[in-house]
Each structure stands twice: as structure tokens, then as C-alpha cells.
Amino acid sequence: MSTTLLNGTPDQDVSAAMSGYMAKMLALKGKIGSDREFGEAALRRLLPIAMGNSGQSRRVAAVLLGCYNGSRFPLDLTNLRSLDYSILDDVLAVLRMDANALQEVHCYFERGGRVFEKLAEDWGFNKAEEADHG
After folding, report:
1. DSSP helix/strand/coil, 44
2. Distance between CA atoms of 59 and 75, rounded to whole angstroms?
3. What is the SS3 assignment for 81-96?
4. Closest CA to 46 of 33, 59, 37, 31
5. For 75, which DSSP code?
6. Largest alpha-carbon pair distance within the chain?
């Protein structure tokens, strides 16, 4: 890559900086792709946990609902402290995926909007919202 200044002379510093920038962008593109792949797999593992009745199910549901609609379902990050490490790893993978969202988390599932709304209803997360509007 050759970058020239206004006087027409090549600027090696600018060329080196541009080459470095392009290399970083390509690496980032690859990282985003792998984050998406791992995040989707993690999301598919987490939803059944959130729909279950283990001690961690409500916390996982809160994370997924926070990704689904953070203004309706704000997430208390201290809830992450009590998750098993494997579940926490999956939560972090979903958060990395969602940071560069190809699509919203509910869109990874058939009728995902209904699934996530039912999840909120089942865990009583809509009650606070209803109290605000009731």
C-alpha cells in the first residue's frame, strides 16, 4: 500500500500505519465471526437452563432477557457471581456475540419473541413493568 502526501512523495509512516490498521481490522472481523459462532451455541445452551427450575435458571433468564430488551429487563450484574463457571462462560460468550449483533438474541429461535416474552412472564419479570404502568 502506497500513501502519498500532497507533494506526491510517499510517506512510509502513513503506509505502515495503514497496513497495521488493515491487519487489525481483518483480525477483528475474524474475532467477531468466532464470537458469533460461539455465542450462538452458548445461547442455545442457555435458553433451556433459563426455562428450567434450577437455582441458576432465574439468573440465566435475567441475562437473556437483558439482552432481549435491556430497558424492560435491566440486569443486576451481581447475579453473575453465583453462576457455575461453565454457565458464566456461556453468558460471556452471548454478551460478546450481542456486542456486535448480527441479529437480536430472540431471533435465533423460532417464534423467539414469544419464547422470550413467556420466559419473562414465567419468572415474573413483567410484574415490575406492570406496576409502573398500572
Report:
1. helix
2. 9
3. HHCCHHHHHHHHHHHH
4. 59
5. -
6. 70
Give dist(CA 92, CA 88) in Å, integer.
Answer: 6
Residue type, 7: N
| pLDDT by residue, tens only, the chain of 134 residues | 555 555 666 677 777 777 776 766 665 666 678 889 999 999 999 999 999 999 899 999 999 999 999 999 999 999 899 999 999 999 999 999 998 878 999 999 999 999 999 999 999 998 655 545 44
Which pTM does this prediction carry? 0.75
Q: What residue spans define the domains of the chain?
A: 32-133
Distance CA 47, CA 132 (A): 27
CB 80 within 8 A of CB 88: yes
